[in-house]
Amino acid sequence: MREAEFLPEVHKVLEERGEPAYRLKQAYAALATSLARDWDEATNLPKTLREELSEKAPAAVMNLSRVSKASDGTRKYLFHTHDGHAIETVMIPEKDRRTVCISTQVGCAMACKFCATGLMGIKRNLTAREIAEQVFVAARDTAPERISNVVVMGMGEPFLNYDETVKALRVLNDSDGFNLAARHIAVSTSGLIDKIRRFADEPEQFHLAISLHNPFEDERREIMPVAARHSVVEVMEAARYFVDKTNRKLFFEYTLLAGVNDQPNHVEGLAELFDHPLYHLNLLRFNWTDTGFSATSKRGAREFLEYARELGLSATLRPSRGNDIDAACGQLAAKDLRGRPVGTPVSIS
Ligand code: SF4
What we know:
The protein is α/β, with parallel strands linked by helices.
């Protein structure tokens, strides 16, 4: 049962009290649908139950320590887990979309050379509850506007925390839970091929993005140590399995790094790999982090995009967002863990 798996501590309290089964559904709806952060807000539950839950199984499992707001409206949430770890979440508003980028691990073991999170190493996996709560908090902050998209592209490699990540996504997708369509939820992996296949076999229509960042084997290994485990050929075989199995568009993330992966031969290398009409190239200009890399110029990025399209690739160049609060992929939490202030702190209820 989804509710009991997602809320084991709540389930235990209810069982010990001999509460009827529908109480668990009510508690689940209070968190996942009504976005309660305190059981006192769940007025559909009896007062004595609310008091006992508050003591034994609090409604919020993480402290929201800070909300920073960028000049373009992007918001970054800094959370602290019960065991003192810092994690971050970003909400990016666009014309008709509000996208939340969530984390699945504290730090990351994949050690991509251009990524500030990768420099931290891995501390631990987040639980499904901690993963989903990031979305609940962003949704509460954004209300009455609804969150339209969730992307699992924050701290961590989600496929190294596969079960808890998918459990959280199911709660986000659940019509009795957060009720967000699966096609509005996307997971990004650095290319763990077994998990790409497993994800393709899941019944929900979640989207997938694969971080490619270089079409050439030796060059990719230099910036992504994971590449030593799975070759580009193996990643592309898993990609083909995904599109054949799901018939869904598959996104390839490509962060443009000046002088590293932004030359015409890289476009040509990509064109050779992209042999399926459902493959889409997502280009992103590198956001500065203290990793020794620098961003391709705006003009260089546009030229890369144009050449890719000329060679027949379906491709887009994503605008960078939230630069003044270090909200880009690969920048999350690293600064906060070093104790440096970011952005303009604002508080939400
Ligand atoms: S880019 Fe993603 S997979 Fe690579 S180290 Fe950073 S968080 Fe991990």
